[in-house]
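Batch 3, record 17
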Amino acid sequence: VELEDGDVVVVAQKVVSKAEGRVVALEDVAPSRFAEGISGDRDPRHTQVILSETARIVRLRPPLLIAETRHGFVCASAGVDASNVPAAGTVVLLPKDPDASAERIRGRLRELTGRSVAVLVSDSFGRAWREGTTDVAIGAAGLRVVLDLRGRRDSAGYELQATTIAVADEIAGAAELVMGKTDGVPAAIVRGLDLAGSGTGSDLVMPPDRDLFR
Amino acid sequence: VELEDGDVVVVAQKVVSKAEGRVVALEDVAPSRFAEGISGDRDPRHTQVILSETARIVRLRPPLLIAETRHGFVCASAGVDASNVPAAGTVVLLPKDPDASAERIRGRLRELTGRSVAVLVSDSFGRAWREGTTDVAIGAAGLRVVLDLRGRRDSAGYELQATTIAVADEIAGAAELVMGKTDGVPAAIVRGLDLAGSGTGSDLVMPPDRDLFR
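Prediction for the assembled complex:
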């Protein structure tokens, strides 16, 4: 597949994190008493890594922990994952700065192909009230991530009042459908959208003052 | 465009609701004192319709109301919408039974085309902690809506423990990218997936006993 200008390249967080060395060997971790207390059947050192990545605990039903990360993302286990890791006894963390990761990948793709593409770094997040995860964008470069339609009018002339669409998350979810979880496919290309811009993954975090659930 | 067996036809809730007569004229609504009290700049009769569709108030920051509907969906304004309505002074409700709606549409498409397709009824839902709406599936017929990968192994042999993917929501979000909100396109076809099955929109509602946010 050759890249074209305007393509959106969606790259799975796991492969980005591994490339950036965001891997922790559990043998180097000393669990706290709190980590031991909430671990259940999980390795308490794994729980300790989760707690180290947690800026705030949003919900705790041991061993399940919903955390706010330093980036502001709210997700299970602060994004720490033990699947598809590079070696037994390791866990993978989220990238330190997923927007910087997306920008770096975008620059590298431009060097390699001469094409101007957008890049999303995606991860699977659970959702309040709904079953299952959907992939969302945690980092972005080169595209609009939220379409703000407020002020536009529908076909009857009604002015839309609360319509902002998280297109980057919809793109990440669409990409998940072709990447899968156990097939080792870490990237997908979404073509035919017209969304060039300069949004970031941070733009997709609800500001606390408008957040009814923080 | 001709339908093919296995296509997923995504139909916007709004057009389904209109076809099913789920439209309320505000002139027929008498607002309660409570509706008046929380309406702010909104027409209190509109608020009254929202309250009538609400099984439980999840969050209230007047005039913003996050509701659990009778279907179990948690969404803004109980899914009641004043955009893209059939006439001024009306609002549109969610279908009474979106899974039955999807099944009906699926049957009708089979009659008209001879093709066996899946149908999703989609709507735009906000999300806790994240900016913007994404389209999700509120009704489904003819496909799996949640892929349960628990027990499968990654390439390193690690057994996935908590991986269920809400593919129907990812499909609905992908369809939104080509439908838009002000273009009057009420349906999209998603082709190339292999998800035949018998999931429902109800399957996408998190059961209360596992829900940390209800």
